[in-house]
Design goal:
Pfam families: F-box-like, FBA
Domain FBA: 69-250
Protein name: FBX6 protein
Keywords: Ubl conjugation pathway
Shape: elongated
Helix content: 10-25%
Radius of gyration: 23 Å
GO molecular function, one term: ubiquitin protein ligase activity
Number of helices: 6
Distance between the termini: 47 Å
Number of domains: 2
Number of strands: 11
Structural class: alpha+beta
Order of helices and strands: HHHHHEEEEHEEEEEEE
Strand content: 25-35%
């Protein structure tokens, strides 16, 4: 009787490519020397990438480790929770909440414009006093283990969208920090504040930044944005923000 151990390597690769990565690494790889060899094969992880839509032919020469590439692709998602105000202020820490405080409004809002993304329906809006909110992302809780972050240094891509009312000037600020286990700042993205004048186009604009080749030891990502109106009008005439995102993905050569 033929056992699974008698199957040709290419058949084992095809079978194993159907299994979840966690099972391959935590169970199958420990069964025997042959299975460990197959689980470590580049062809297996390349096949899994093909199955799940992560593979394109032009990547062949740019991927140095297909196992890590697969893991990063399968983990990739927006690490900012409640980015579009669909859950009120859940997951956000209100660091500054002055004037008439943060508020949530529906797009396009008074004297505003719609976003290009039809899936975004709401935004957070600031008042005449400083309004800032933040999230702290713990990478280990999100599935990014220490050795992965230290050895592979995957790209960390930050994006945020902001807009003003047509009839009021305002100020927008963003800070993103990569933090160590002890919350020491290892790298920071802190662009100059954006000041928008009164009688503007009210168009939504994206700001983005990619962290690459950052120091080893990144364990947290701290994201903070906000601002205020510059004419100190009572109500909610300040900067509007929504659709924030932080994603971690593989670097290609």
């Amino acid at each position: 009787m033929t056992s699974i151990g008698d199957l040709p390597e290419d058949v084992l690769v095809e079978l194993f490519s159907l299994l979840p990565a966690r099972d391959l690494l935590r169970a199958c790889r420990l069964v025997c020397t042959q299975w460990r060899y197959v689980v470590d094969l580049t062809t297996l992880w390349k096949r899994k990438c093909q199955r799940e839509g992560f593979y394109t032919q032009n990547l062949d020469r740019s991927i140095s480790d297909w196992k890590v590439f697969y893991m990063l692709c399968s983990l990739k998602r927006n690490l900012i929770k409640n980015p579009c105000a669909e859950e009120n202020f859940q997951h956000w820490k209100l660091d500054n909440n002055e004037g008439d405080k943060w508020k949530i409004e529906a797009l396009p809002g008074p004297h505003g414009t719609d976003m290009a993304d039809p899936n975004v329906h709401k935004y957070f809006v600031t008042s005449y006093g400083p309004c800032f909110k933040s999230q702290l992302i713990t990478l280990k809780k999100e599935g990014y283990w220490n050795e992965l972050m230290d050895e592979k240094r995957p790209e960390i891509v930050v994006k945020d969208w902001y807009a003003a009312r047509f009839d009021c000037g305002c100020r927008y600020e963003l800070i993103v920090r990569l933090l160590s286990e002890d919350y020491i700042v290892l790298e920071e993205f802190c662009p100059e504040p954006v000041v928008i004048q009164q009688w503007n186009d009210a168009v939504w604009r994206e700001i983005s930044h990619t962290f690459q080749n950052y120091p080893a030891g990144v364990r947290y990502i701290w994201f903070q944005h906000g601002g205020q109106d510059t004419q100190f009008w009572a109500g909610w005439y300040g900067i509007r923000v929504t659709n924030s995102s932080i994603t971690i993905g593989p670097q290609t050569l």
